[in-house]
Amino acid sequence: MCGTPCQRSNGLLQSCDKWSVGPLPPLFVHPSNGAAMTAMPPPSRRPSRRRILGAAMAVPPALILGAQTARAASWGTPVTVNSWNKINARWTANNELQTYRPDCVWYEGNTLVIKAFNAGGGVYYSGRVESTARYGYGTYSFTANMPNGRGLLPAVWAAYLNPWLPEFDAAEIVGQNPGVVYQTSHDVNNVQQQFSRTNSSGWTNSYHRYSFSWFPDHIDFAVDGVITGTTWYRTPAGTGLRFIANIAVGGDWPGNPDSSTWATADGARYLKISSITHTPYNP
């Protein structure tokens, strides 16, 4: 069913399908000039202390004579992420219950769909994808419609994978608590800093933009363009993160599903992602 083997840092050998879809059309319009974009502009961020000091200090021209002019930091053009490894493996990390299958992931038009369902006899099938390409500094953005349901943990995130860390979670929602979305940074030693936002109407079953912006010395997390928190620490070289999306079933955090989890018209739950983009940042 699947081809290329993928070795995980926990020693689990998995197989993957590599597949992609063609370029996707712009999905957003720039709020200031009406230009079409594949992603909204990255959320604004507070300036670093280094830049504030630099702006306040006047340097006589004689002191910089012959010195190279510093290259200003800049943002690149958003790139649509649509080439994936589809995971085919039983997943036991965190005491999770699901088996990932390639046929639980597909595209409906431009929307990536991941399905989770109860196959009976204590067997749960779900989907997980990891981008074939790695990406560096910049904004990682998912416009996602997350499912609810007891014992589910849908997530959109990114990680090095080999080695696993660092990891940055753009959004995780515990299925029985759909009014809270969690965003978490994991450094190379798995030291974690978590932020959350609440929504009285719930975050599930409607589209929201979950993102983080990765800079050399910090990470900004945002929901619908509003920054929820900042983690300050100097990360490894700015290349190597893979985009990841999945639905975990059961496990230490959400607990086990029950009959209410699958009480839907077709007995399944879906994670739908209409836009996945990387906007490069050049320090």
From TrEMBL:
Species for this entry: Streptomyces sviceus (strain ATCC 29083 / DSM 924 / JCM 4929 / NBRC 13980 / NCIMB 11184 / NRRL 5439 / UC 5370)
Ranges where the GH16 domain occurs: 17-276
InterPro entries membership: Beta-glucanase-like, ConA-like_dom_sf, Glycosyl_Hydrlase_16
Pfam families assigned: Glyco_hydro_16
Cited SUPFAM superfamilies: Concanavalin A-like lectins/glucanases
Any single biological process term in GO: glucan catabolic process
Protein's name in the database: Laminarinase
Transmembrane segments: none
A GO molecular-function annotation: hydrolase activity, hydrolyzing O-glycosyl compounds
